[in-house]
Sequence to fold (216 residues):
Amino acid sequence: MENERKIRISIVEDDTGTRRILADVMRNAAGVELVSDHGDGELACKLLPGEKPEVVLMDINLAGSSGVACVERLKPQLPETQFLMLTVYEDADHIFAALKAGATGYLLKNTTQEELLAAIRLIMDGGSPMSSGIARKVVQSFSRPTTPAPAARPKIEGLSPREQAVLDLLAKGFLYKEIADTLAISGPTVNTYVRRIYEKLQVHSRSQAVAKVLES
Fold:
């Protein structure tokens, strides 16, 4: 439909060929609108706050400034913008550096066009899309035993029991609607709890909140 609201997308990718391919995909896909594409990280950091995209497809290895550094700088200025890393790196250090900086999702560049567009829709619905191999690494980090092994993951100081429950479900990848159904609360109530959690943890995204859980 012509009046369908489109998701505003920006691309930050220094490889010209890859950037052009991504831009063509966004221009031709239904339900999305290409706002801008940038080949330099430093320039992207300057221009994106004024462009206010809803989703940024961000490479990690950029000219000018790394993708992780860009996300870290931009997230406080664009708290509602979702940053989706699109990269060749699949090692744990890059993954958790990106998530801690404020990225909401992490996909490898071999992701198909259909998977990429599905990930954009999922990220706008409160999800945290990740390539399967990346998701396994994140899950493994949660299940990795410590010495001595705790009976349960430590609680975050300052959170109420209900806020802690919401945070635990966020960390497991639950969508907002799934959290509402699991805890038998309304969607707006979930949003309120999430906002309070972000304020108390001094974070700006689900991934930063999950990083706090990983550090605890």
Observations:
- The CA atoms of residues 76 and 204 lie 7 Å apart.
- Confidence is low (pLDDT under 50) at residues 144-153.
- The first strand starts at residue 7 and ends at 12.
